[in-house]
TrEMBL record:
Protein name as annotated: Probable 2-(5''-triphosphoribosyl)-3'-dephosphocoenzyme-A synthase
MF terms (GO), sorted A to Z: ATP binding; triphosphoribosyl-dephospho-CoA synthase activity
Name of the gene encoding the protein in the UniProt record: citG
Transmembrane spans: none
Chemical reaction(s) catalysed: 3'-dephospho-CoA + ATP = 2'-(5''-triphospho-alpha-D-ribosyl)-3'-dephospho-CoA + adenine
Lineage of origin: Bacteria, Pseudomonadati, Pseudomonadota, Gammaproteobacteria, Orbales
Length: 295
């Protein structure tokens, strides 16, 4: 068994032993475990190193997943019990659960932001799945993403365009560079995942590559095309452009199908660390890619 598979098996045993949770909630926990174990991820925390981060390491992520996964069932149940509410009410009602879950994360990590974006995304995805199930609709990638998109209709306009506060990084970067960040991705129904990383992941799988290699190739495509606000917050637009161009160069050489694919990723990791770049939004989309591949 590879280090990746071994570490995942161990963490699943430790963290996903609460099998009272519904299957989608268990899959969300697995997705976060797979994301943090995937290595090497340029600039991010993984099994090799803490990337460009001084305030968190692999163990911080394990603690964070332990704390937030308990909440996943709540999002799903909310989706079921609130299935008939209109979209705006549905979104307004799920957010307090998201905020409580964020608080649990901060408490578990000593106030470090490990999964704020991940909580937002998985809260919405699990709420959407609960709602679809309650309404007797088919649960597949298209319907889940359409449901999240419907729930989030207007979120970019209401919270970013018409809002003059700049208290969060996302709000600031929208004003500065028109980047819609995590909200935009959710409102689009995870278009970057559906049109870029998921097809790459599935094609690689179809061609017989193992899960780790498929996810690394999907990650390269996310790095190349995702408008990651974390990269911009640390490195400005130049940081985002640098990350996208370097990932595209590796993809051009074949990415993980290149004999030295892993070495190229390790070199990119060193470059990101030198430049203090960390693609946290891309990390979330890797987890979402694997999660959606399960439906
Ligand atoms: C709606 C919120 C997400 C608001 O957050 P904010 O206004 O800050 O919005 P964004 O900048 O858009 O990003 C928030 C997080 O989303 C991830 N992200 C970034 N870009 C994208 C993208 N293009 N697509 C999807 N997701 C994206 C990212 O999260 C990950 O990175 C974080 C770790 O990064 P790190 O660099 O370590 O930490 P920082 O503290 O940011 O910086 P440093 O000091 O280290 O430099 C981690 O969170 C990952 O998950 C962005 O950070 C939302 O927060 C909100 O409203 N929450 C309330 C709860 C709620 O409503 N929930 C909804 C229902 S459940
Ligand atoms: N593995 C990771 N490293 C750093 N930031 C992240 N945000 C989500 N996953 C992350």
């Amino acid at each position: 068994m590879s280090d990746y598979s071994q570490q995942i098996a161990q963490l699943e045993l430790d963290l996903n032993s609460d099998n009272n949770q519904c299957i989608p909630a268990q899959l969300a926990t697995k997705a976060l475990i797979k994301e943090v174990c995937l290595s090497p991820k340029p600039g991010l925390v993984d099994m090799n190193n803490s990337g460009a981060h001084l305030d968190m390491d692999f163990q911080t992520f394990v603690q964070s997943i332990k704390a937030i996964s308990i909440w996943f069932e709540r999002f799903y149940q909310y989706g079921k019990t609130s299935a008939l509410q209109d979209n705006q009410q549905f979104l307004a009602g799920i957010r307090p659960i998201g905020i409580e879950c964020e608080q649990a994360m901060y408490q578990a990590t000593n106030q470090v932001n490990t999964h704020k974006g991940g909580i937002f995304a998985f809260g919405l995805l699990l709420g959407a799945i609960g709602r679809l199930e309650q309404l007797g609709l088919t649960i597949n990638t298209q319907n889940i993403c359409d449901e999240v998109s419907a729930i989030c209709q207007g979120i970019v306009t209401n919270e970013l365009k018409q809002n003059n506060t700049t208290s969060s990084i996302g709000e600031k970067l929208f004003k500065l560079h028109n980047l819609p960040g995590a909200r935009g991705e959710a409102e689009s129904g995870y278009i970057t995942v559906r049109t870029i990383s998921l097809p790459i992941y599935q094609t690689m799988k179809h061609n017989g590559y193992d899960e780790e290699t498929c996810l690394l190739q999907a990650m390269l495509h996310l790095l190349a095309y995702n408008q990651d606000t974390n990269l911009v917050s640390r490195g400005g637009l130049e940081g985002l452009t640098f990350a996208q161009q370097e990932a595209r160069k590796i993809i051009k050489q074949g990415g993980m199908t290149h004999a030295n694919g892993l070495e190229l990723l390790n070199q990119l990791d060193e470059e990101f660390i030198k430049r203090n770049l960390s693609p946290g939004g891309t990390a979330d989309l890797i987890a979402i890619t694997w999660f959606l591949s399960q439906f």
